[in-house]
Amino acid sequence: MKPKVVYKPISSPEGIEDHVVYMGRLQNNARRYYQCALVIAILVTVLFCLMAAQLLLFPLLCTSSTEKSVSPDNSCSDPCSLVLVESIPEGLEYSSNATINPSVYQSWKRLLSQAQSSVDIASFYWTLTNKDTHTNHSSASQGEEILQEMMKLKQRGVRLRVAVNPSGSKAKDADIDALRDSGAEVRVVNLPHLTSGVLHTKFWVVDGKHIYIGSANMDWRSLTQVKELGTAVYNCTCLAQDLGKIFDAYWVLGQDNATIPSPWPDTFSTTYNKETPLEVSLNSTASLVYLSSSPPPLTAKGRTDDIDSILSVIDDAKKFVYISVMDYTPTEEFSKPRRYWPAIDNHLRKAVYERHVTVRLLISCWGNTKPNMFPFLQSLAALQSNKSHYDIEVKIFVVPASEEQKHIPFARVNHNKYMVTDRVAYIGTSNWAGDYFIRTAGSAIVVNQTGTANATNSLQKQLEAVFLRDWTSDYSHSFHSLTSYKEKCIF
């Protein structure tokens, strides 16, 4: 018996074609699905990379972009004019052809006469009248006139703000009380509490476009009985507003129960410093300028500390460093226990030893000079010798005093606080001892005009002329020639 054969029907051509079409469609769908999946995968990968780039790289780009957008354009188009000013004490006379600059009194009078909206003054103390010093000296008239002009500012619609160190005695506040009564705003900055120092700064900011900065206190003796040096800068908004930031810091600290911010808000920061100074024309001479301050706790972001500016000026000198200051000592004068502070001393010695720079120090000598300053000066002077070829010399400057002038308290002294090199002029408000840069509030203006060829009337040249005038005068005495400090300094 034959097995039963099961026959499969033969598909028709139409059936085969349908099957092929069906299978093709499946393959096409699969291909499209794969392509879609691939595209989606690529898109996801690209999006992931973009997100990663945004998270990792974009912040850096943003930072770079932000820094660039706020990077300072340190040029200033103001037509700034600068005047070197001095107070020459009555009875101190130079030769007829000696360099004589406009007086501090004249500059203060001019600033007050030009004031239209505001006068801000940072000061150590106020003693502009005979009443404050319990004297009856005719030369106090200039100080008394300045005080009277200040008391009229409110009537002229000019706002007067004064930041001052605590006097420690109500009897010493006669000028301050008179100013308050006339409408002035006064804040006492308690730096003795905040930093264990004092507000030793001496500067003015007028209308946000004129300034005075220098050694002169708000004291009638600073106009007629004490040798002072400073500078007034007119029509220089960029510089005045920068000095105004230092004043604003004092103003904030003059509030009740004030504390020192750390860090200071950005509104107090500056872009003008020793690395990126202000580019400005002073007396039609291209100049690089910045303002430094002390102590470090009061120095906002971008501001150069005063001691750093001094050291950088010394280190920058190629030929000479001339210094005229009232006090010079590589110590902290008022610290307990006593501390050695050789920062400036070391840089001067290095300049002489390594770079063969000529160094001259003109230090003041008067009835209040501390004898412990002289051994340190003698140590510097000892470097000078024919064998060593180290060119460093120290002289003391003595302001003469008549019998009448000897009875004026705290007068008859060279109170200058400046340095000039072959490249830079530095005018400050601090004595050169450690305390003034560590705890005490001071400020300075630093001017470099060496970029201009043949700048014969530069501040550097003017200041050099002042120094050489004093150095070669009859009032300067070689350190080695002294036989008795008390005899020479009128101790």
Can you lay out the helices and strands and say which pair or pack?
Layout: H1 13-56, H2 58-70, E1 75-87, H3 104-114, E2 118-123, E3 126-127, H4 130-133, H5 141-151, E4 159-164, H6 174-181, E5 185-188, H7 191-194, E6 203-206, E7 210-214, E8 218-219, H8 221-224, E9 228-234, H9 237-253, E10 278-282, E11 285-294, E12 304-305, H10 306-316, E13 320-325, E14 331-332, E15 339-340, H11 343-355, E16 358-364, H12 374-381, E17 392-397, E18 417-421, E19 424-428, H13 434-438, E20 442-448, H14 459-471, E21 476-478, H15 485-489
Parallel strand pairs: 1-10, 2-4, 3-8, 4-5, 11-12, 13-16, 16-17
Antiparallel strand pairs: 1-9, 2-6, 6-7, 7-9, 10-11, 11-20, 13-18, 14-15, 17-21, 18-19, 19-20
Structural class: alpha/beta
Q: What does the radius of gyration come to? A: 36 Å
Task: Provide a count of the helices.
Answer: 15
Unreliable segments of 5+ consecutive residues: 1-26, 53-71
Strand tally: 21
Percent in helix: 25-40%
Strand content: 15-25%
What general form does the structure show? globular
Q: Biggest β-sheet, characterized?
A: 17 strands, mixed
Report mean pLDDT, rounded to a whole number. Answer: 87
Distance between the termini: 154 Å
GO molecular function, one term: exonuclease activity
Protein name: 5'-3' exonuclease PLD3
Family: Belongs to the phospholipase D family.
Keywords: Exonuclease, Hydrolase, Membrane, Nuclease, Repeat, Transmembrane, Transmembrane helix
